Amino acid sequence: MKQTVKITREMVISDILGKNPAKSQKLAQEMTNHGLQCASCKSATWETLEMGMLSHGRSEEEIEELLERLNEILDEEVDLTTISLTKKAAEKFREVAKEEGAEGWGLRFAYKAGGCSGFEYVLDFEETPSEDDQVFHSNGVDIFVKEVMVKRLIGSEIDFLDGLMGSGFKISNPNAKGSCSCGSSQSY
Questions:
Q1: Rounded-to-integer distance, Cα 15 and Cα 19, Å
Q2: Left if phi > 0, otherwise alpha if psi is -120 to 50, otherwise beta: which for 56?
Q3: Which of 19, 32, 119, 122 could be a cystine partner for 110, CB 3.0 to 4.6 Å?
Q4: What pLDDT, on the 0 to 100 scale, is given for residue 45?
């Protein structure tokens, strides 16, 4: 999935996210990481990227750095045939599993009804897969997904982020059609 249109400072934030739905969650997270905490807020998406950055006190250098990173994200290949964990997410999963007495267990990845956008992700420990699971392997972790959920979750990348606004697992799902501004729920 290579980008066709390069992101520029004059682009409106809602256009950046709307024209790149498969990567919108990752793009919004990167904007948040660069100081645009309201990147997915409906009241701020009408701004251009430049206006948003400048109104948040960011410098020209920081705008250029964000533009470079956003365009790198658009150039990243997405494997739509699997579900994966980044190396950092896999390491954090194993660390937490050990603390919880679930060392060597797999990751249950699912969704359930809830949140302001319709569905919330579920991440949990599971010792073995169920008969109706599809099993994915990524960075040394087995990921268990119910067959009926694969269609909505395939292509997802699970990452772990540390930041001033909190730490946790973040999911980029190319099948999500929309998500709430906090990123904890999505619609399909």
A1: 6
A2: alpha
A3: 122
A4: 66
Rg (C-alpha) for the chain, rounded Å, is 17
SS3 (DSSP) at 138: strand
Cα separation, 55 vs 41, whole angstroms: 15
Is pTM, for the whole model, over 0.70?
A: yes
Alpha helices, DSSP H, located in 37-133: 49-55, 60-75, 87-99
What would the pLDDT profile of 128-186 be if each residue is shown by its tens digit?
999 999 999 999 999 999 999 999 999 999 999 876 666 888 888 888 765 544 455 45
Q: Is 113 exposed, middle or buried (0-12, 13-18, 19+ CB in 10 A)?
A: exposed
pLDDT tens digits along 61-98 = 999 999 999 999 999 887 889 999 999 999 999 999 99
- Domain positions in the chain are 13-75, 84-187
**Alpha-carbon gap, residue 90 to 28, rounded angstroms:** 22
Backbone angle region of 125, left / alpha / beta, with phi > 0 → left and psi within -120 to 50 → alpha = beta
Helices (H) and strands (E) in the chain, counts: 6, 9
* CB atoms closer than 10 angstroms to residue 176: 25
- Say which CATH topology domain 84-187 has: Hypothetical Protein Aq_1857; Chain: A; (2.60.300)
